[in-house]
């Protein structure tokens, strides 16, 4: 939700990351920036598949949420 409030378009995906966040040009609709985002709570670790995805991608981001803010 933080991405959507910041002007990003989000698309769900569950293949090594939780969603894709895209920032578009408001006039042309062209995608200016795209990130693969994995949401984790607290200090939880990435799975083997997520680590491989992060290592193989230059636009992979791990977004951490503190447990008290989950609800």
Mean pLDDT: 88
Number of strands: 4
N- and C-termini, Cα separation: 13 Å
Low-pLDDT segments: none
User: Would you tell me the structural class of the helices and strands?
Assistant: alpha+beta
Query: What is the C-alpha radius of gyration, as a whole number of Å?
Result: 13 Å
Helix content: 10-25%
Order of secondary-structure elements: HEEEHE
Helix-strand blueprint:
Layout lengths: L1 H4 L3 E4 L6 E6 L6 E11 L6 H9 L3 E6 L6
Molecular structure report:
The protein is α+β, with helices and mostly antiparallel strands. The chain has one domain (2-65). The protein is 18% helix and 38% strand. The chain is built from two helices and four strands; from the N terminus they run αβββαβ. It has a four-stranded mixed beta sheet with strand order 1-2-3-4, with helices on one face.
Name a few traits of the molecule:
71 residues; 4-stranded mixed sheet; flat; single chain; 18% helix
Summarize the model shown.
The protein is of the alpha+beta class and 71 residues long. It is 18% helix and 38% strand.
């Amino acid at each position: 939700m933080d991405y959507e409030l910041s002007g990003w378009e989000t698309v769900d995906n569950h293949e090594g990351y939780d969603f894709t966040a895209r920032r578009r040009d408001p006039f042309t609709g062209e995608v200016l920036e795209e990130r693969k985002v994995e949401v984790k709570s607290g200090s939880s670790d990435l799975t083997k598949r997520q680590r491989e995805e992060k290592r193989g991608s230059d636009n992979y981001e791990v977004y951490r949420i503190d447990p008290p803010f989950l609800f």
